[in-house]
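Inputs:
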Amino acid sequence: MINNHTPHNRTIEVCLSPALIDLFDIEHSIVVVIDILRATSSICVGFENGADHIIPVSTTEESLAYREKGYLVGAERNGEMLDGFDLGNSPFGYMGPHIKGAKIALTTTNGTRAINAAKTANTVVVGSFLNLNALCAWLKEQDNNVVCLASGWKNAFNLEDTLFAGAVVDKLIEEFSYSSNCDSAIASQHLYRLAKDDMYGFLENSSHRKRLERLHIESDIEFCLTPNQTTAIPILKGDCLYNLKVLEKANL
Amino acid sequence: MINNHTPHNRTIEVCLSPALIDLFDIEHSIVVVIDILRATSSICVGFENGADHIIPVSTTEESLAYREKGYLVGAERNGEMLDGFDLGNSPFGYMGPHIKGAKIALTTTNGTRAINAAKTANTVVVGSFLNLNALCAWLKEQDNNVVCLASGWKNAFNLEDTLFAGAVVDKLIEEFSYSSNCDSAIASQHLYRLAKDDMYGFLENSSHRKRLERLHIESDIEFCLTPNQTTAIPILKGDCLYNLKVLEKANL
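Outputs:
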């Protein structure tokens, strides 16, 4: 079979905050939305555990309204699960039999908002260290340029999302011949290479780790920084995230 | 004399794009505006060479209108000096007898716009590698927190401005006991430490160096990356930049 891809012309860029997304040509790109601590990690875990689909919504009210339609409803604000919801933002909450086949509506401080900010992209997928290799292998097979979108914290730059963006840049440039003329991609790659042998230690002084310290979720953080625990690739179709492989099997 | 400063409580943050400035409490901070290639470097050189004051303006029309008031007028767009102006954005244009005592109006693609974006700050000063040590020594004597504002390129992140922000972070944290809870400050410091022994080489693949390559201004770039060639600290008073030392001598 002839491979019609044009791998030498594809580019990878990094958008360090949802507030900067208008600087990028996302209409013709695949956007990888990143919220390592913890929305996009939890979403990947949800699909690994058989979730049917996940609807990212902007407000807690929208999320709650889905309960009467048979959804599990999830909400996190400032790092904490809100009262009256089934799920928060911990990846461990997205494991177990209650997730298999579940329809989930989820709102988080940053991640689900970033997914919605990227809606005009050619394609939106969800990335985390948990699906790093699977995601990059899939990107390699696509024709489009890639923009990694770091969710950050309320539009501010954050370190862990940038490290993951750097991991994607490193893989796509070094292994799959993508190019980049984007300084934030170069910076992210440098930071990832500095950090990769001990990401947990590297992030010790980061703002978000300090923010989460009071919540005693060190095990969440260690888990979210451990690469390649799933091959699930969540992809946005309309307003819903699905597991790409399940969609492909169903020929949707 | 009793020193009333409270050096242990001061913080340093980095704003990676003028589009993100609203995330920072600049009303109570000193903002260091950074446009290494080349506006803030040229402004520092102008004061080193005796410029009386420099007015950063947003448009070429505004700049040109100052000519009839006896000003030297400067304008750069997309890296090039515009026809009909006395000065562009090369630091070498800001040396020589025509600068001594001159009043200058200047508009550039990024730097002068960033200065104007910071106008609501407690204090606005101009930084470049050229005045690094003098600037940091002065900051140390002030009571305010510091926000480094990278001008970037049309609101996009750029590497050389981030490296200089990292140099300021490194000095203020390591030598002067500032603290930071800001991920972009941590990232900038890491990148500066990676780059500092060969900044020119480190920037070889950066977007702006590539952008400027066609202009054959390698000597401008080498000059702008050479630390501590002046002790001038440009400071904004009203709409004008002055040389801080000259202001202090005149007790203004």
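Remarks. The radius of gyration of chain A is 17 Å. Chain A is about 35% helix and 20% strand.
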